[in-house]
Amino acid sequence: MFLENTVNHTEQFGWIEVICGSMFSGKTEELIRRLKRAQFAKQRVEIFKPSVDTRYDDEEVVSHNENRIRSTPVPASSNIRLLANDVDVIGIDEAQFFDDEIVAVCNDLANRGIRVIVAGLDMDFKGKPFGPMPALMATAEYVTKVHAVCTRTGNLAHYSYRKAQSDDLVLLGETQEYEPLSRAAYYKAMKEHEMHNKKERNNEQ
Fold first, then answer.
1. Which of 75, 104, 119, 201 could form a disulfide with 31 if both were Cys (CB 3.0 to 4.6 A apart)?
2. EC number(s) in its UniProt entry (predicted)?
3. Known catalytic residue at 94
4. H or E stretch at 189
């Protein structure tokens, strides 16, 4: 459960919130919602995203349903530490694309009294923990796991199945390249993919 009312009036401190899940689960939507509420409360807010993420906009953070908020693209997590001055709240989108130093950066900022809100994919397309996300989830005070709806079964989905033929860990894409699947649907799809590849290899021999 996420609690915002954790204000200690005698001690200045911050904390880390992680919003994670599969693609199309509403991670960025939830990040933007929290950041806009903070802005409405006249809190000083800065948003960062990896400069590699240019799917919707070079600078803005944009959700799948076109909600958007101004952000600063950065090539490495260390840039966030340098740019995060005189702020109350920091938002970080697509955290899985950052280097491992993002964990230390988020903890340093929280220790400086800043509320840090991080959104990212918890698993890659192979169903493995994605980059620095496990460590961020472990050190965060609050973790919110959001789910998509499986395109094949209608059940809750927390796997991002890659339809595109690519083994690159980082492949930016939308519904043409990915679909959210439940555990059962993902397992079945991966088995079918494996059998298809095996068949193709046999045909080539």
1. 119
2. 2.7.1.21
3. yes
4. helix 183-204
